[in-house]
Structures are given as structure tokens and as C-alpha cells.
Task: structure prediction
Amino acid sequence: MPFHFSDRWQDSDPTPNALTEAIAARKKSGQPIFDLTASNPTQCGIVYPDWTSLLNQSSVQTYDPHPQGNLKAREAIAQYYAERSERVAPYDLFLTAGTSEGYAHLFKLLCDPGDEVLVSSPSYPLLETLASLEGIQIRSYFDLKSLKANLTERTRAIFLVQPNNPTGHVLSKNDADYLVHIAEEKGLALVVDEVFADFLYNSNILPLLHSKKSLVFTLNGLSKLLGLPQLKLAWIHVDGETSLKARAKKHLEWICDAYLSVSTASQAACPELLERRLDFQIPIQERLETNLSTLREVAKANPQIEPLWPQGGWCIPVRCKGVEDDEAFALELLEKHGVLVHPGYFFDFEEEDVVVLSLLIEPTVFREGLARLLPFGK
Result:
């Protein structure tokens, strides 16, 4: 009798795509790669303050887990929101080992296998993988009109990232209110990933979404907020109608208690890290501003590229006028010019002339990469 693997793997394909193979070939040849996709802040030459001693506190020697996470850490997160003029109670927070785990917990909480969730598009492709591992289907929406058209009897939640990754788009107040209205009208949960909320390109503070009739789950964490993905500390905030909220928290506590995955050391360090967050954020903000300035300068002199200017986040889509196949274009840039970009299809852009760049790149690499990218229009 043949061996059986879960159907969760039925859509997975481990075969490297053409761009992955081209990257490997160029590395093997020893030729340089001007990587304009790198988004890991720990590998982009950003100088952080010294913080590692915070992981060596006496409390890390004791294992005393709580399903929702360490209370002092949750109180520190509540204080962070207070400084954003938001009222968040520590007992409405659940700590997770990264936002990916937060998503997985919410899929378990809200959906049965075969259920569906709506996800804003363009979007980071990880969500599709996480959903498939839970036996859940993803349906994309591109605007509020297509959102309503994609609702089915099996829709259980609406997911959005704001600022969006990779567009940097932020919902207007009217659109946010309408989204909450749809969720309440259809009995759906809202799941809002706000990991880039502290990196807006204006003075506005991104408000939390709230609901009086349904549920809103907000995800955030130290990976982007402080540029510390290695600490694997994130959280889920639960908001909504009183009775639904109580049930959701009860079930979520049970799910979290089954894993207890958050490091004691990360939780112990969390309060002081959040207190010192500007020490981490200012170098990142300076990097983003430097590269945005460079891109403005280059775009002004080279009208064949049209940046789709974001409202926040660490990435930027760029329209390359005249390009008819984003994947072929990305391959040509790498093989002929040594420049690595994300083709837009990676994020479900429908347009064939869009590539996506990271704004965390070391500035000299970013400038040189743009210079090498430009011959396509000449």
C-alpha cells in the first residue's frame, strides 16, 4: 500500500524557479550580485545599539510559562500602544513566536479545513503557504468592490496588511470603516497585520481597527518594529464585541497553551527593548529615507521608471515602462547586469512591468543597482 502524505502539501513544488537557478549560477561563477531585494535588517549593514545583555537576565533561568505570555512583556506592549494613543489591555494580548505563528493560531481559531479567507492583493506570498498548511483556501481581493464579489458561504475572515507589503498602501479612514462594516454585516473576523506601522512616511500614527459587533485581531512584533527578527517575539491583540471576544480569548488561550513557544529570554528583554525602540528605529528610518531620496533623484532623471510611492513600509514597487514580462526582465537584469529584483508576479501584481525593491539595501549598493537596472530603457 503506498505511503500517504497530507493533502496540505499537494500544491507545493520544491523545484527551483528560473530566477533561483540564475542566482545560484551567478554565485557559483563568483560574479557580484547587486541584491535589491534584501529585507533582513540584520544583514543590511544597519548599526544597532548594544542590547544583547538584556537576554542574560536572571529571570531567564526560570521556566514559568503563561499561555498569553509574560505579563511584564504584555504590559510593556500595552504601554507601547498607549504612546500611540491606543487603549490596549495586557489581558487582551497573546504573545507568539513571530507573526507567522500568530497567523497559524488565528487560522486554527477561525477556520475549519476547506474554509476560506480573503487576503488583500498585492501581498506577501507567505500567507498562502501558511493557509495551505492549515487546509485553508485563500481568495484575493484587489479593492473593496472585488472583496464583496469574492465572499462565499465559507469565508471566515478578511486579512489585510497595513502598511501593505509590498505597496506600502494604508487604508483611508472611510475605507477602513467600510471594511469593518462588511465584516460586521457578514459575521467575519478582521485580521490586521500592522508590523510596519511604525514606519510611515508622514507624521500620522496608524490607528488600530476596532469593531463593536465582530472581532478584530491585530498582529505586530519585534521583527519589524525593532528590526530584530531573530528574537521571534510577536503578539496578537484581540478586540471586538464583548461575548465574541471572551470566547475568542478562551479558545486562543487553549491554542497558545498547546505550544508555549515564545522564548523566556525574548519576553524578559521585551520591556526595555520597547522602551529603547527609537534607538533601533532611527537607523532604519534613516536608511529608508536615504534610499527613497536616491530613487526620487534617479526617477526624475530617468522617466522610464515610475516608482509607486508608498505610504509606509520597507519596500517599493517600481514600474519599468516598456517591459512586457516581469520574470524575463528580472532574469535579464541578473544575468546581464548582476542586479537582483523581485518580479511583480511574486507579490501577485497583475501588471507585467512592475518589479519590487527593498529600501533597506546599503545605500551604495542601492545606487549602483539602480544604475545597472536602467539600461533596459536605452
Summary: The chain is about 40% helix and 15% strand.
